[in-house]
């Protein structure tokens, strides 16, 4: 059974029917947002059952749309916190990917601006590597990007999409080592992206991120994970009651190959490792439970079948 990411939007009235249907079909609700009288469900559902879910949703005025970024965590990497780097391009892109289902985190570099001092420290590198993909937001100048990218990519293990002022062909030529995705015509600008051409550019960024993530999904599918991160999320909710008391909007953040658990590592990591998944198999047998460099969170990396000989 192949699960695909979708988003359900509809009125709050009788939306439990849709949740029950998704769970009965073997799918998972990753996030649920209630906004006044509207509910938004970000889900993984069986590919063959999408039309059935749409059919059940129509009488209660619900809409089901494809959301390729659901179940991913994206690092939006800005060169600094200075006003000419951060506010508009970074925030607009981070908000746009959230609307399509991704969980985005802003990462501003301590030594990002300027060719002379540019660099990436160990903490910044580790935080970026905890995500599924990184989107680097560069400036407008070709020579600056060409000089800085080899330094800013050093030690980065996740796929990278580079956005910059020069056109895409120029970025492909000057970025060395090569990265997985490029979007030109997006440099520093002091305005909100509200015009039609600016929104088209955001759609172009989403399309490039989606393309890179689909390739990563294909690579993961060649060696399946020992357990689905979405299923693991539900198990943690059931068996670790403390997660229900976390006030963060996403106490459990689903990634393509794991989870970010927003509980203190020293207190809850041993409990997570001992947690039984099925038939005497503990989480520690099929996943790495690691300290996150982001606050005091826990990072769960699910191991592939080739390492565990187990698929649950």
Count up the domains.
3
CATH architectural type of the largest domain? 3-Layer(aba) Sandwich
Number of strands: 15
Helix content percent band:
25-40%
Instruction: Determine the mean pLDDT.
Output: 90
Quaternary structure classification: single chain
Query: What distance lies between the first and last C-alpha atoms, to the nearest angstrom?
Result: 13 Å
* Helix and strand element order: EHEEHEEHEHEHEHEHHEEHEEHEEH
Helix/sheet category:
alpha/beta
Kindly report the name of the CATH homologous superfamily of the largest domain: Response regulator
Largest sheet: 5 strands, parallel
Q: Looking at CATH, which topology of the largest domain would you report? A: Rossmann fold
User: Quick one: CATH class of the largest domain?
Assistant: Alpha Beta
Shape: globular
- Stretches where pLDDT is under 50 for at least 5 consecutive residues are none
How are the secondary structure elements laid out?
Layout: E1 3-11, H1 15-24, E2 28-35, E3 38-46, H2 50-57, E4 63-66, E5 73-78, H3 87-99, E6 103-108, H4 122-129, E7 133-137, H5 142-152, E8 160-164, H6 168-174, E9 181-184, H7 196-222, H8 229-239, E10 252-255, E11 258-261, H9 265-274, E12 276-278, E13 281-282, H10 283-286, E14 287-291, E15 298-302, H11 305-308
Parallel strand pairs: 5-6, 5-7, 7-8, 8-9
Antiparallel strand pairs: 1-3, 1-4, 2-3, 10-11, 11-15, 12-13, 14-15
Description of the structure:
It is a single chain. The chain folds into 3 domains: 3-66, Alpha-Beta Plaits; 73-220, Response regulator (Rossmann fold, 3-Layer(aba) Sandwich); 229-308. Helices cover 36% and strands 25% of the residues. The protein has 11 helices and 15 strands. The strands form 4 sheets. The chain has a 5-stranded parallel beta sheet, sandwiched between helices. Strands 2-3-1-4 form a 4-stranded antiparallel beta sheet. The protein is globular, with a radius of gyration of 20 Å.
């Amino acid at each position: 059974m192949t699960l695909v990411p979708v988003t359900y939007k509809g009125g709050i009235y009788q939306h439990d029917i849709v949740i029950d249907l998704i769970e009965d079909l073997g799918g998972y609700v990753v996030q649920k947002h209630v906004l006044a009288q509207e509910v938004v469900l970000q889900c993984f559902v069986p590919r063959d059952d999408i039309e059935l879910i749409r059919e059940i949703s129509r009488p209660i005025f619900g809409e089901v749309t494809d959301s390729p970024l659901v179940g991913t965590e994206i690092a939006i990497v800005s060169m600094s916190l200075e006003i000419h780097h951060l506010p508009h391009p970074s925030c607009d892109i981070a908000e746009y990917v959230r609307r399509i289902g991704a969980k985005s985190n802003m990462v501003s570099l301590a030594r990002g601006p300027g060719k002379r001092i540019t660099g990436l420290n160990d903490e910044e590198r580790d935080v970026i590597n905890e995500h599924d993909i990184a989107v680097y937001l560069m400036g407008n100048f070709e020579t600056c990007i060409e000089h800085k990218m080899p330094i800013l990519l050093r030690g980065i293990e996740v796929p990278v999409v580079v956005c910059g002022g020069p056109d895409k062909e120029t970025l492909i030529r000057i970025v060395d080592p090569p990265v997985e995705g490029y979007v030109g015509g997006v440099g520093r600008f002091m305005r909100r992206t509200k015009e039609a051409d600016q929104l088209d550019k955001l759609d172009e960024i989403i399309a490039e991120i989606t393309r890179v993530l689909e390739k990563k999904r294909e690579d993961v599918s060649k060696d399946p994970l020992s357990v689905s991160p979405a299923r693991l999320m539900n198990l943690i909710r059931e068996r670790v009651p403390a997660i229900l008391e976390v006030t963060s909007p996403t106490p459990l953040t689903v990634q393509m190959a794991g989870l970010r658990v927003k509980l203190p590592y020293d207190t809850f990591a041993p409990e997570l490792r001992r947690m039984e998944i099925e038939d005497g198999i503990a989480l520690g047998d099929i996943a790495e439970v690691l300290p996150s460099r982001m606050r005091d969170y826990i990072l769960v990396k699910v191991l592939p079948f080739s390492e565990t000989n187990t698929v649950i």
